[in-house]
Structure formats: C-alpha cells, structure tokens
Amino acid sequence: MRLGPAGLAAALALALCAPRGEAAVYVASQDGGALTEVGDASEPAPVAVGAGPAGLAAGPDGTLYLTHPDRRTITAVAPGGARVLRQLPFAGQPFGIAVSGDGAKLFVGDWQGGRLVRIDAASGAREAEAAVGPEPAGLVADAAGRLYVAERGGDSVAVVDGATMTRLARVPVGRAPFALGLSADGHRLYVGNVRSNDLTAIDTAALEALATRPAGRSPYGVAVHGERILVTNQESASVSVLDADLAITATIPVGRYPEGIAVEGARAYVANWFSDDVSVIDLAQMREVARRKVPGGPRAAVALPAGAGR
Fold first, then answer.
1. Phi, psi torsion values for 306, nearest 5 degrees
2. What is residue 310's predicted lDDT score, i.e. its pLDDT?
3. What structural domains and CATH numbers belong to the chain?
C-alpha cells in the first residue's frame, strides 16, 4: 500500500565508511517491505523489514531505523543491514525519524498527531514530546541536538531543542515543505517545498529564511554535497543541482518519480519510486552512470555516518 503523502527525502542523506573502498548506501522499499544495500560492486540480498517502510535514518554505530506509518512500528536493523534487531511499537503514525548523536534516543514525527516524540532507541519507551505543525515530514538533527521538522501542512519548519523538547522557533518557508538537507557545517538548512516547486535556505543561527528559489517540479528529496544542493524532482524525473546562491547549475535525468537521495563520496544515489530502481549519479561528470534494481517502491535513501560499523 502506497502512503498518501508521497515521498521521503529523507531526508535525510548518509555516508558509510566501508573497508572495501566504496561505502554502502541503503534504500528502503515501501511496496517491497525491504532494505537494500546499494553502492558496492557486490551487493547483498535485500533484508525483509516488514510492510510499508517510509522514514529511514542511521545511528552513529551504523544501526538503521525505519518507520512504518501504517503498521505503527519502528524497525531497527543491525549495522550493515544484516538482520532485523527489533521492532518497536509507536503510539501514532511514525514518519520522519532522526537519531541522537550518542545513538541512545530516536526522534520521531507523528504524521497524524502533529507532534515530535523522543523515545529510547533500545526499548521504544516514550520519554517526551513537543507539539509541532500538521503533517510533520522530513526530520533532521544537528550536532547541537536541535531538531528541524518540515511541517508539511503548515508551510513552515519547526525548530525543537532535543534535550528539553521545547519549540525554539517556527520558520515560514514555501508551500508543503517535505525534505530537509543540512550543510556539513550546520549553518544552512535547505527545505524542499513540494507544492511551490522551490527550495528555501534557512540560516540556522538566526533561525530565519534567507531566500527561496525555483528547484524543479515537486522537490521531494534534498542532499548537500559541499556547496552544491541536490534536489529530486518527482514530476520531472530529474535531479536539480543548485549552487550556494540557489541557482540551478545542472539538471540530471533519472528514473521515474525520484524521491530519497543520499550522497557518498563523489556519487549520489536516487531512489526512483515508480521505476523500482536506484539511479547512480557521478557528481564529477554530473550525469547518471548506472541503475540498480531494488524491490518495489524505493522511497528513502541513507548512507552511514563516517566511522560507523558494518
């Protein structure tokens, strides 16, 4: 069953240091109920994780976490995607997800409940929550422990202190924000606005929007690579590449209905929801160089943090 709110960026890009040279990237397939490693020459078989995974995030030790909105559960997968460790019940509809810097806590957006919930990563026990806007989608944490939440139904981004679970700010952006991408230094947050077809840059120190510029048709995934911002465009089957001034410098054709995107090294990996594959983009050549088949309905992509286990 496909979710009504299409796509997850995921938000959320990741990078894994692997001893074989090229690090792995992981893709969650909603229809196929699977997690697949892509990126290496020899890729293992997909791991069954249960029906309808949507959100995907990685902990500092390489543990992968997937949200299942319709099943109201969160699945934890061992580093390297080898096996399912546990499934945690969630009282709500879990969608976006982020992991604390020490890996002990999970921050989960409740799509139906309009709240951000902090839970224990091992037991799933609820610890605290904060009210956020309707339809919390993309979710990302910075090094200081602040959470940024795309409020799709509120045309805004909420900023929440992860320690106290208090809302620090609400930043207006474009229409129906979904995907978030944070710069490596944490100074800029980039927001893909699905219904206004644009990208907003937020100054994370001042907590205010700096600019909003066109990005493509239905931007659903955002990743940051140096000073370049990569945005997947669902309705035009492409990835837009923007510079630090938010000007489009390249448009790269990919598969059908691209959503999640992850960057590892000099390559980007794009989950193409409708064509059931992953586009591999060479960021030096600025073109697609390969396609990898995965189970049906790939939507979220992530690569493990540097130094994570495997």
1. -55, 135
2. 57
3. 25-303 (2.130.10.10)
